[in-house]
Amino acid sequence: MDEVKIIEIKKSVFSENEIKADELREILKKKKTFLLNLMSSPGAGKTTTLIKLINTIKEKSAYKVVVMEADIDSDVDAKKIKEGAGIEAIQLHTGGMCHLDAEMTKQGLDNIDCEDADLVILENVGNLVCPAEFDTGAHLCAMILSVPEGHDKPLKYPLMFEICDLVIINKIDCLPFFDFNMAKCEEYVHFRNENAKIIPICAKTGEGVDVLAEYLIGKLEEFKN
Amino acid sequence: MHELGIVFYVVDEIEKVAKEKGATKVLGATLELGEVSSVIPSYFMELWEWTIKKHEMLVDCKLDLVTMKAISYCTECKKTYGTVEFGKTCPNCGSVKTYLVTGNQINLKNIKV
User: What is the ipTM of this complex?
Assistant: First the structure.
């Protein structure tokens, strides 16, 4: 009979990912590539917002933007970005997993031409729970909450709203048709994270997208200096 | 679904530690789960049973889940309270200027090899 022994570990299961995420953040910082992790529930308008946003950033600055799409399957989002914004987009498949972690993000970056990219936007899997738990190595976490989802979401998904520095409220053209209370929503977002920046937009009509683009360009300039 | 990713992390970590220690078989593991770690123990166990069948070292590994109480701290009245019962509002003074001290952890405590 082989010897049996207990090995004490006492380590968070996320610690490995957090180390990798910090390493990735540092590598990208040296390359002056800003990584934005964009999250939302399915259908909140991540891809449509990205197309409008990238086109606006292109009009306002000379920054090079690259997109990484993460989905369980298909390449519809990467195709849409290529067609809609005319930039390079890569599709990552998570193989059934509901989120991206730092290692998957790094592998994605290794497979895309982003040496001279200023901004890499990671469009995470549509989900308000799991992506919040895994640090991808991003320099900024943003999420999109769309009007039809309701203003109470910050109360229901605490972690997502705690970790996001930027909350984009999309589909504001639908406000007259829904019981969405913007003041309440802002109150709930700040209840979770008092420093969160809130930008209301409509990706379809383009309303507010210039404000969003300017905010990100400002963040990029801060990051580069 | 969400538990699956965490099970994979736990399995990888156990295998890594066991190999480092030169073990050939892992017989047991203890995992500390915070009350507000957003992991549902029954789902976690089902996925665990499914996952370990694919890992030779872990097929006989018995997983022990230990629930850790969630505690929040109030910055106004400087007292602590149970997070699960009262959420973000301090039961002593009604302030919402509170933060979680412990209870969201998923820690691998030890393994038996």
Answer: 0.80
